[in-house]
Amino acid sequence: MDEIKFQNRAIELAKKSIGLVSPRPAVGAIVVSKGKIVGEGNTMPSPKEHAETLAIKNAKNNTKGSVLYCTLEPHNFFSKGIPCTKLIIESGIKEVSCPTIDKNPKVNGKGFEELIKAGIKINHKWDKNSISECKKIYESYEYKIIHEKPYISLKTAMTIDGKIATTNNESKWITNEESRKKVHQIRKYSDAIITGINSVLADDPLLTVRESNKYLNRPKYRVVLDHKGQLNKNYRIFNENEFGNVLWFTDHKVKVNNLPSHIKHYKCKNSIDLNHVVDTLYKLGCNSILVESGSTLAGAFFDNNLINKLYTFIAPKIFGGQNAPNPIGGLGITDINNHTKLKNITIEEISGDFLFTGEIDI
To answer: How far apart are CA 200 and CA 215, in angstroms?
Structure first.
């Protein structure tokens, strides 16, 4: 059982870095000597240390003959510091327990190979649940490497009759408090949260990650798509600079002076091009993006085939109303055979609400 305990501790440490260190992957590492954890580490933002480096450093003189547990293959090339593989070899660690190959082409198994050549045992056999947690942690990191664009999720909340607001656009609150807490857990996995100006005007959101009302320094970027440039000092995301950077995309005709320092203005040539927005976030190092918006913007993301995962909260309520908005607008389809399919579907009950999660089946 100690094996699972050590695996889970490495995963806990990796989760501390999620949403804070991209484009680096979030890694957790521990050094175990004589059955006890003697050193721990998690990935720091560049150019600070990697998880393995910190774990070895914190273990001090207790590394000889020890086991290193880490959630991702140690890197084997010079970047901001010396390779983790070199430090592991020099430390006298006898075994590395790790379930995940780093898909970065510079690594991709070469880290493990280097350690094996140095006489270090590699153990890939982790508990099934631990492996599942690691896959979730590196889902967006691996997608970005393979496809050269961020992994994009869409979060929606609706009534059981498919409404995201009443006929007069009241939307607070559709889901219960526990579901809203779950939203913040989902946000933790995102480097950027995108919304449209209509959501800002209607709900005045902060787009932050909070637990027990404590701000967790996430996400790195809050993104507002605002064709006409309606964002102004009447809204919290404009005024409150302690909650991180805001990227504000508008039409090129919008002119603003004396913007707060936390807001960066991006002028698009004509209408806002979602592919351009996503590419900008990719170049900023984002591995994962979460879209939280009304039906128009959500539909536009689907029309552009940009969504990879869907989080749909469903509350056991009925609003009715022919003109009440639904979660996905846009152009839609005319041929029923062209519908978007979902795979790897899970359904979770949250105090009477339900969270429906599925990946887009491309």
So the answer is: 19
